[in-house]
Amino acid sequence: MKDMPIEPLPVKRAHQLQLRAEEERWLIESLWTSEAVGVLGGQPKCCKTFLALDIAVSVASGAPCLGQFSVRSPGPVLMFPAEDALEDVRCRLEGICAAAGKRLEDIPIHVITVPRLYLDQDRQRRQLAATVESLHPRLLILDPFIRLHSVDENHACEIAPILSFLRDLQRRFHMAVLLIHHTRKAARKDRPGQALRGSSDLHGWGDSNLYLHRSDNHIQLSVEHRAAASHNGLSLQLHENGSAAALRLCDETPPPPSSERQSPHQRILHALSQASDPLPMSELRSLCSMRTSTLCSLLRDLTQQNRVRRSEHGLYSLPKASSTSVSLSLPL
Q1: How far apart are CA 134 and CA 128, in angstroms?
Q2: pTM, to two decimals
């Protein structure tokens, strides 16, 4: 029997690859990109679950997350709370809904109620995939990762199949996936993602990652994206009003710049002000989410105005005199 001919892989010219419209770029403005997989990480008792539930209410209802960050395309949320009693999950969600001026019964949050779900077992993977296919959620939340498998988190070869399965779900059903995970207690790393427990594959897997750190009564949120500007040092507080409890940004914490509040020129200046080194056009295009032709035109304007400097190697930076004093509030 002759070998069957091998079909080549499908390819496209680079300029034919589909671009996502700017209004479709974010699931939650500045916090989570559309259809992103990623990790919400932090040590125990730092309100990871509260933040995940706030995200669930926002995506399902369209209410601003943390009272600040807009959701452009709300839709159903599917979640599996592996550690919390279902009664507690409902009570927390009702409190967050009350704080947002919503009713839990009016928003499509679906909770998986089985006592355990192991994503290293083929049957339970297929059950989760069937559930996702039936509900078509905008977001899947799994809390926490340690309760979702029986493998060794420190071995990439054991973790990789689980992460690949979740990535496959994301691509097949065009949804976002948020995985709650713990950081090491004694970790002291320059980047929060490097403090996640287990294999470094968990950090590298995420398109959008959120990290919480608690010191006394202060909670700090860091935001990390694969293809957008990151933000550090956002201060959160848990506000309680009777039975309603929800995380909110502290009054003294400025929210990260929103593309809705910034002009295209300001987005370029902000990206350059956050960079430690001059940036090539390709990286600027990714950070600012602009077409190449648009970015070229804007950079030409800013360079002529001496607000941006272009090196002989084609790298862009702010003039030294203004690199620490860029104002994002002045109209351009």
Answers
A1: 10
A2: 0.73
